[in-house]
Amino acid sequence: MKIVSSTVLFTALVAFACCQAEPETSLETSAATSELIDPEFGVGVQGTLVNTSSSLLRLTSIPGVCDGTKQLVCASCTTLRLCQGTVPGQDLTVTCSTDQPYCNFGTTSDRCSADPIPDVCTDPNQNVPVTCSAVGKLPDASNCRIYHGCLTIGESSSIYTCPTGYVFHPGLELCALENLFARCTRIQCSGNFLGHVRYGNSLRFYGFCDGTGQAPIVFKCPNRANFAFIAGTTFGECVYACPAQGNFPNTNDPSTYFQCFWANRRLRYNVIRCPTGTRFNATLRICT
């Protein structure tokens, strides 16, 4: 009977552990790829870059003030304010109809029109950059057939247009063939509503309405986070699910990271900003 030394046994155990770990790594890789495929509508496709201009801005100047002269004034690109008096709060905001979807200026009264205000409001079927609220891809609030690419928060987006018959799919973050499972999604702000609105059924994308009736600003939750409304309010937040204790990247903003820790038998987190000039290194799990 041969006696196996402890060194040989330890080496065998290490080799066994390594071999068992390999399938898990490959599964993680294939899982990341499979997120781009759904049997219901096929494979998502990249859009075509059509505009990187930062010169176009949406909603740059709309007074929307009842000054005693006009009976109706434009409150936003798509809403009218009915001036019922000079006391604040007496005026009423209404949304233009689908056959005359835009508000346009007039001499004694503004009106709903088939034409948007020149150089201020833009037809949502045209390509209009937005200010990036996160790094990565963002849907357009009004036009489901384009999406925005963002490299830096606060800068203007690059615009990608989907092929004919395709729409932006929030689950893939790519263009998908429009059908029952990939529908055209648009979000808008009604009247003086202040708060958040969901982007269709997406758990990651949502919009913010500032109370002026203007087009909502689109946001997205980072990886491992879902959007949820706060009970009793019109506001919500992204709730991050810590995978373990430690530091983890914020996919929305590389200059910040999630610091996860145990407290009262629960994993909790703080969002930490890296020092100026550094970014979070996902490999080292520190700012470098």
UniProtKB/TrEMBL annotation:
It holds the Pfam family CBM_14. It comes from the Eukaryota. GO terms for cellular component: extracellular region. Residues 129-186, 239-288 form the Chitin-binding type-2 domain. InterPro entries: Chitin-bd_dom (IPR002557), Chitin-bd_dom_sf (IPR036508). One of its GO terms (molecular function) is chitin binding. This is Chitin-binding type-2 domain-containing protein. It comes from Anopheles albimanus.
